[in-house]
Write the structure tokens for this entry.
Amino acid sequence: MALTEKGLDCELRIERVWERRPDFLAINPAGQVPVLVEPEGTVLIDSSPICEFLDEAYTDRPLIGPDPAARGETRRLVSWFDLKFGSEVTVNLVDEKVMRKIRGEGEPDSSVIRAGKHNIHYHLQYIGYLSERRTWLAGDHFSMADITAAAHLSCVDYLGDVPWDEHPEAKDWYARVKSRPAFRPLLADHIPGRPPPKHYADLDF
């Protein structure tokens, strides 16, 4: 989404990280995605360093923030959603419901799923709080904070586990993000054998 917001073309490749491919491990010994390989061979690893690089290398459409204070707030929220939302919601729902099966780790743990469904309310309340007081999550400008939050939520929403009707302010913010052209490729991406709920790709859900 960050690449598209900046008007940059890219070739996306699927990497099944659990297969531990030697060629991929040679690029990133941590065996994790995302990895960005620039045309001249520069390799960037992990979403935050990649997006920081993109903002410094391609300055036409800044996504981190126009000034130090804005950049600090954007980075705080990126960390919030990648770490706190990620561990309290995304891992408990997406990893438990989808990735465990893909990795052959058995049936999902219902107690973990319940925890994720409980935790998401707190985060949706926080998104609502921010969006009521600001144009976008980090301030006046659409930023990596919005992209990061929306990326996590799109994964959970694909499973039908976001209680949008209980959090109208967060829903209104997400509808604005969904309407951006850069978000549409995410809405078109499907898990084979597991279609999303009907509202998933609806811009006026």
Notes: The two ends are 20 Å apart (CA to CA). Residues 110 and 139 are 37 Å apart (CA to CA). Residues 68-188 form a domain with the Glutathione S-transferase Yfyf (Class Pi); Chain A, domain 2 fold (CATH 1.20.1050.10).
